[in-house]
Design brief:
The structure is a homodimer.
Chain A (H helix, E strand, L loop, with lengths): L1 E9 L16 H13 L6 E2 L8 E11 L5 H9 L6 E9 L10 E11 L12 E3 L5 H9 L3 E4 L14 E11 L4 E8 L6 H13 L7 H8 L14 E8 L5
Parallel strand pairs in A: 3-10, 5-6
Antiparallel strand pairs in A: 1-3, 1-4, 2-3, 5-9, 5-10, 7-8, 8-9
Helix pairs in contact in A: 3-4
Chain lengths: ~250, ~250
């Protein structure tokens, strides 16, 4: 028996998120079906980031156990033959049998992209959130700075979750505008709450639009109340960039 | 009667190109239908660049004549309400009645994007051409340099066209690789032949892959024969960036 780790990129536009659910097709289900077909064993992957419906990924992580003789490094190529073009496994490698992608220490990186101009651009519509009003990037950067560090992020967590410990550590939170009028919010951290990055994005958009003062982000954290923060920004602007594990590959 | 100029952005993935044809839906047809519905007159636009099936645009140009009282600058907003999200008119303004988007002097800019890495990325699949083998950007830049200037581009023109004069002027042709492993070929010129940018891209890809020497691009031009150049690169990598007209707006 071996445990194999996959790095999975996907365009989330046509999926009901990562996690298997009765109402629609998910990334997890697509991977389980493709792996089961390829390896001739019933495979159930364990994912690192259970991304929402419509969220994209360049490097989500999943593991599964297998008896196959296919070398772990070759599995990704064979697997991609069985996956549609909107899911591409970027890498496969063996990891220790006790490696669990959500229980190990890891650093996750997300990017939220906002197209900030007067009219939408069709070629960016699936991968950015279009926002018409002028956003002040400097204010967004200032607001973002208060989020860095170990804080209780209860205000930045969907009320649709029952998690008790809402303390998380944000390692960095940067805001940049490209010459193509795309504002990118990049957040890295050791763990995230349900909808946390999208609520951070929604709050920083409110800061950029002048509806929330940059310094108020500090108070929003202190309130520990979802209603204190800004709205949850739409899914299509969010991409999980990747996950770094320390000392896990065999 | 007024002549109105539109700047049109679109995701070409779901269209059979610009020009009206019996076999499928085109950008031109979508614009004609939306304008006819909006203005209550039968409208037929004249386009500047008749892009192929699958080619995208940030700023193609079209004109039409109308008796409407809607201010020309407002037409784009009203029109976008009647267009699907993969076509967005970026601007509308009045131009002289004799302004013809293909007969005036103009400078057109195109970008061909190649995703050059070992595995495809789902979120870029519609807007780049995935190429697996390592491309040498320096060689591509050297090859590109021979194309700049006024040349007979017969070798870079599809044989499916009957055009007689194949002399065109390329104002610039640059090749750059981004940190996201996307190689962008940008070409500007005062006129282009059928498939010219895609054949330039296909030829520079062959140069980057080592199949054609950079200096051979000069010889390819001199041969005046389509078969001397590289293949026609796939449509989805091509985006029409925009068109600059000199002294046309009223």
């Amino acid at each position: 028996m071996r445990r194999v780790k996959l790095v999975v990129a996907y365009d989330g536009s046509n999926y009901c998120g990562w996690q298997i659910q009765p109402s629609g097709i998910t990334i997890e289900e697509m991977l389980n079906n493709a792996l089961t077909g390829l390896l001739g064993e019933e495979i159930k992957v364990i994912g690192a980031s259970r991304t929402d419906s419509g969220v994209h990924s360049l490097g989500n992580v999943a593991v599964f156990d297998t008896m196959t003789r296919i070398p772990p490094g070759k599995i990704c190529y064979a697997l991609n033959q069985r996956l549609p073009e909107d899911i591409v496994v970027q890498d496969s490698c063996e990891v220790p049998l006790d490696f669990h992608p959500r229980r190990c220490y890891s650093e996750k990186a997300y990017e939220y992209r906002i197209l900030n101009r007067k009219l939408p651009l069709p070629t960016l519509r699936r991968y950015t959130y279009f926002y018409y009003r002028d956003l002040n990037v400097k204010k967004m950067q200032q607001g973002a700075s208060y989020l860095v560090g170990r804080h209780d992020f209860k205000s930045f967590c969907s009320v649709k979750t029952a998690v008790e410990d809402t303390v998380r550590e944000v390692l960095s939170c940067t805001v940049e505008k490209s010459k193509e009028e795309v504002i990118s919010i990049r957040v890295t951290g050791t763990g995230f709450l349900y909808n946390m990055v999208r609520i951070i994005a929604g709050t920083l958009i409110s800061v950029g639009a002048g509806e929330i003062q940059p310094e108020a982000v500090k108070e929003i954290l202190e309130k520990r109340e979802r209603s204190a923060a800004g709205p949850t920004a739409p899914a299509q602007g969010l991409t999980m960039l990747g996950i770094t594990y320390v000392k896990t590959e065999k």
